[in-house]
Amino acid sequence: MQNYTWLLNHTEDYIESHLDQKITLSDVAANIHMSEYHFHRLFRKHSKETLNQFVSRIKLERSAIFLRVRKDISITDIAYRYGYNDASSYNRAFRRHFGVTPTVFRKEQDMPSNKDSSNI
Amino acid sequence: MLKPTITIENIEAMRVIYVRFRGSYNEFRKNSRKLFEQLFSFAEANQLIIPDVSKVLTIYHDNPFITDAKNLRTSVAMTIPLNAAVTETDEISSMVISGNFGVGHFELNLGEYGDAWNYMYQDWLFSGENKARDAFPFELYVSEPPKNFKAKSLTDIYIPIE
């Protein structure tokens, strides 16, 4: 079954397991045994983001949570943990996405964690 | 809300089938019954439900203070045997959850889930010795969730830790 939701689910799960690595079209296509051409065509048809933007956004948002909950880890180490070559490229990408540097973001008021749920 | 018992648990491999919702928590809540029904009907059709063993979860992949509402991902999931044969559909996928978790064992009514999550982060994780691990947290329904605001049920909240 190779529809878009299925592709998206498995691509997100792949990113989840490879947060510390560079992730390419070839990686995510191989993960679901789909040709790069077919993957790219499906993704481009349905997504408002390019694959690179999608991967980068998920990683940056995950790193933002981690910046707040693990203040004992340096920005440089966090950059490596999310597959960036160095702190400056991470800083640039982070600032582009959130409008502030990781250092400023980390110092802002603690993130409330008011997960609310009442599901069934 | 009663103070929970907290245990540390290492999950070697917990396989789940899931339906993933993308959108705000309000939209998720409006759709959650339908999502669970979709999950249950798939599980029934594929004979994946094991009475008293199968557990149902809600997984929170993103933080609403960081991720735009339209991109928030929430999954409803059900545990299945590791070796179960599953033919995935477009909507229903499977994955394996593993790692260390701090687990809060709560007895909650419908209005107390937010307090329970706050307790796990503010009163337990950020106030103690354990360090957060970069993985998603989830809630697991030990007994069937309450149908109204008076009833209580047993819910475990799993916070990933190193």
TrEMBL record, chain A:
Q: GO MF terms on file? A: DNA-binding transcription factor activity; sequence-specific DNA binding
| InterPro entries tied to this protein | Homeodomain-like_sf (IPR009057), HTH_AraC (IPR018060), HTH_AraC-typ_CS (IPR018062), Tscrpt_reg_AraC-type_HTH (IPR020449)
Spell out the Pfam families in the cross-references. Answer: HTH_18 (PF12833)
Q: What is this protein called?
A: Helix-turn-helix transcriptional regulator
Keyword field: DNA-binding, Transcription, Transcription regulation
- Which classification does the entry list for the species? Bacteria, Bacillati, Bacillota, Culicoidibacteria, Culicoidibacterales
Q: Which residues form the HTH araC/xylS-type domain?
A: 9-108
UniProtKB/TrEMBL annotation, chain B:
Q: Which PANTHER family match?
A: TRANSCRIPTIONAL REGULATOR YGIV-RELATED
| Organism of derivation | Culicoidibacter larvae
**Looking at the record's lineage, which domain of life comes first?**
Bacteria
User: What's the protein name?
Assistant: AraC family transcriptional regulator
Return the Pfam families for the record. GyrI-like
Domain named AraC effector-binding: which ranges?
Answer: 4-162
- What are the transmembrane regions? none
